[in-house]
Design a protein that fits this description.
Layout lengths: L5 H12 L7 E7 L11 E12 L16 E12 L3 E7 L4 E2 L9 E3 L2 E7 L13 E10 L5 E6 L8 E3 L7 E3 L3 E2 L1 E4 L9 H23 L1
Length: 217
């Protein structure tokens, strides 16, 4: 993995210790919603999304996603709270590089946890025109035999886990304060509706009668 210059690491330490002012924008680390139910062993790719919304408090700050500015740094975690679905294959947009000492290793990818801390020194990643969200990467979820509940979270040791605009003194350091929970239903736990079950039993009965007729013939 490419090592970061020492001044970059120093900047990350300063940023993590500097409190942010109350702002009109709030940020959420969330997911795209995959199709479900998911069969055991089947794999689905889920987007990692940073969303910006206006809470109406304080002045509208810039840089921001709303104003067309790029995200140049972010960090967070995806935690499996329950179920036996398996997390894997974290892919972050290539404009970003792993940065900072948290988590260790960075990124961390295991069956029940994905943790990451990334920064861009080449302009970052902006939303598509008119959007207030940015998809920064993806990960895979392999279905298990029970419903899988995932949630996003931050790191208690990183005060400002989001940078908008250029990564450096001219950027705006902020924090993700909203997190999302996602339940991916396993089709191993899906119970057929009574009407569907009755229909299947009817088809089975017809098949048995047909088989009996053939034997008599």
């Amino acid at each position: 993995m490419k090592a970061l210059p020492s001044f970059v690491l120093s900047l990350l330490v300063i940023a993590s210790c500097t409190p942010t002012a109350e702002a009109a924008f709030v940020y959420e680390l969330g997911f795209s919603t995959p199709a479900s139910p998911l069969a055991p062993g089947d794999k689905v790719t889920i987007d990692i999304v940073i969303r910006e919304s206006d809470n109406g408090v304080g002045a509208t700050l810039s840089p921001s996603i709303t104003n067309g500015d790029a995200i140049s740094a972010f960090s967070g975690q995806i935690v499996r709270d329950s179920g036996d679905g398996v997390l894997s294959n974290l892919v972050i947009n290539p404009v970003f590089l792993a940065s900072g000492a948290v988590p260790d290793p960075n990124p961390t990818v295991s069956d029940d946890l994905i943790a990451f801390n990334y920064a861009s020194f080449s302009g970052g990643l902006a939303a598509t025109s008119g959007s207030t969200s940015v998809t920064v990467g993806t990960f895979d979820l392999t279905g298990g035999t029970s419903d899988t509940v995932l949630r996003t979270d931050d790191f208690a040791t990183i005060a400002n886990d989001l940078v908008l605009g250029p990564f450096g003194p001219s950027g705006r350091f902020d924090q993700v304060s909203m997190f999302e929970t996602l339940t991916v239903v396993s089709n191993a736990t899906v119970v057929p509706e009574p009407a569907s079950g009755t229909l299947l039993m009817g088809f089975a009965a017809v098949g048995i009668l047909a088989a009996n007729r053939r034997r008599r013939d």
